Amino acid sequence: MGLTAATDVPVAHGIGGAKDLPISPELAILGAVAALTVSFVVLAVAWRTPRFDEATSGTPAPSLLTTVVDSLAFRVLARTFGMAVFCWATFAAVFGKDLLTNPFFGMFYVWWWVGLVPLSVLLGPVWKAISPVRTINLLFAKVSGGSPDSGVFTYPERLGYWPAAFGLYAFVWMELVYPYSTELGPVRLWFAIYVAAMLLGGALFGTTFYERADPFEVYSSLVAKLSMWGRRDGAIIVRSPLANLDTVVPRPGLVAVVAVLFGSTAFDSFKDSSHWISFIQTTPVVKDHNWANQLANNAGLLVFCLGVGLVFWIGTASTGVGPDQRRRDLPRLFAHSVIPIIVGYIVAHYLSYLVEVGQDTLIRASDPLSDGSNYLGTGNLSVDYWLSYHPTFLANTKVISVVVGHVLGVIAAHDRAIKLLPKQHQVTGQLPLLVAMVAFTAGGLYLLFAA
């Protein structure tokens, strides 16, 4: 992310090099691959029946919790908070100066994009609860006397998550490839187009549009499947995150969503690697022509996203199917198993970025006009660089996050395979997917070291 260098916060990409680890990169990658393989073998021997069932898993949370969360006061409080942050960011975007000290950049790239991950894992689908576009759509419906849940048309099922996948790609393109991603005008325009598209979609298709097409709601809701919070018959229940993960609805476009999320994060590491930087700086055509540089970055992002999707598609479709199954449906039926990998890799890649640049954004948010004001009282705070000052702890945390994410992905895929695949393919049918996950593990760790 370009914003790291734009603030006073040190560059916090990747792992910072092998010197940060008490072991060599080769041993870290070898150990991660071994852990993944051993996990698969243990599951094949000891996990022979499905264990995740939406209808039976989980225990009811205290009824008071459901009462509070579903109360009008709580919903109003959540939406007020979301609107307050939205209005403050809009104020900074419209009236603030075109400087990298403008807090809108941090709110856009750090709080919104990266901050949604820990919030959703801890609290559930948080964007759905605080989404300002949902709130504005609700207010429009109240004024017009209509219902926010229903629109003029019924949302086409065949579209599934495809609009969200394209929206997510548009965001990562703006963040990672667009050459003016730290200029206020283009970022403000992207934000305005997002808001306008969401309000138009909500008016046409109702709230179903937000559940399927809002890139940030889909992103938050998928990550929230790794939380311990679920619903059954309207009541809040507490259950294993893996059991919660099993409830992901395999709609069209789900593979595209996870491919964009994983592929873009991987490309963010790759573009900071010595190999890519050397290619950009030493290849005559690329070095001397801005259009060639931009073409290379655009191609790189697209190749990473398509590559992740293709590898996963091959890994899941290369198995036997039952008489009532279609091979082309298998990728999206197994796509939920990539979500822990995405979360693990986002933690690995953006942990110090979120903690340190996130603090810096809170400090700058008190001065949206960059004129020395301290409206929120946070302007006198200072950034705590504890993570950057403890590189070995940070590096080990990143490696563990990647490994744990992949192991959880293997568990989720194994349980789904037992449910779906014919008995003779329940173990052997997972081998191509295991190979794909081993490739993701080794590639992810390599990119973290290389950045």
UniProtKB/TrEMBL annotation:
The keyword Amino-acid biosynthesis does not apply. Keywords: Membrane, Transmembrane, Transmembrane helix. The keyword Nucleus does not apply. The chain crosses the membrane at residues 27-47, 72-96, 108-130, 159-177, 189-210, 299-321, 333-352, 393-411, 431-449. This is Fenitrothion hydrolase.
